[in-house]
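In response to the reviewer comment on reproducibility (Comment 2.3), we provide here a single inverse folding case reported in full, input and output, so that an independent group could reproduce the run without further information from us. The structure tokens appear first.
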């Protein structure tokens, strides 16, 4: 909980600072769906599963068509597979902070979006579903590390009415298993999201 508070405080400070320095800072909302999974050593049996995300962001101009874009998202990730013929799903909920360098170039009546940057996430809840039975637990009880981090990339289009659509991909760089032995899973995801700027 302390790490979540520190992360939120840092994001609020960045947004407040950006607003004070530049009146052109804008705010937006974003939500999307996609496929999430894991990769890494001894993860071949894992399959991708449906996931989703939603949250808010700010855009602070830093140069010609360049912006700093911090995000605050709720992200649902995980994987699925089978164990002795029984379907198994694992779902991980994160508070995630992607920090993007965003290019917005005008093309016709809209703008092309290209963004890249790191992200940091903090796991808040895990859920395991075996067949029709499901059980929620803390990350600690699920033998998972709360901290996740990695890199993300986006490509999209912002319409003249302030709505936008973008493709997203996130590549985790942290081994999220607390004591997985030779099992070293890292998060990965691909999706699409819609947004709106105020």
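Designed residues, in position order:
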């Amino acid at each position: 909980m302390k790490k979540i508070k520190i992360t939120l405080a840092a994001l609020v400070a960045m947004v407040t600072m950006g607003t004070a320095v530049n009146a052109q800072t804008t705010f937006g909302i974003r939500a999307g769906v996609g496929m999430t999974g894991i990769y890494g050593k001894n993860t071949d049996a894992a399959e991708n599963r449906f996931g989703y995300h939603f949250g808010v962001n700010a855009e602070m101009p830093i140069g010609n068509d360049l912006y700093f874009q911090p995000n605050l998202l709720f992200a649902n990730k995980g994987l699925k597979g089978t164990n002795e013929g029984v379907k198994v799903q694992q779902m991980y909920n994160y508070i995630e902070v992607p920090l993007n360098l965003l290019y917005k170039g005008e093309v016709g009546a809209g703008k092309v979006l290209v963004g890249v940057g790191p992200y940091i996430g903090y796991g808040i809840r895990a859920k395991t579903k075996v067949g029709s039975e499901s059980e929620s637990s803390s990350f600690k009880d699920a033998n998972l590390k709360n901290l996740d981090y990695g890199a993300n990339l986006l490509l999209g289009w912002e319409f003249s009415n302030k709505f936008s659509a973008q493709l997203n991909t996130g590549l985790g760089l942290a081994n999220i298993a607390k004591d997985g032995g030779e099992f070293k899973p890292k998060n990965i995801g691909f999706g699409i999201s819609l947004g709106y700027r105020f």
